[in-house]
Amino acid sequence: MAEISQEQVERAIKTTCATVLRNEHYFSDLDGLAGDGDFGTSLATGFRVIDKEWDQIDKTDIGAMLLKISMLVSKHVGGSSGPIWGTGFMKGAMLTRGKTAISLQDLADMLGSAIEGIQARGGAKLGDKTLLDALIPVHEVLKAHAAGDQDPGATLRDAADAADKAIDETRSLVAHRGRASQVGERSSGTPDPGIVAIATILQDWCKDRGIARTPKAAEVAKATA
Question: CA-based angle 205:47:139, to the nearest 5?
Answer without folding.
Answer: 45
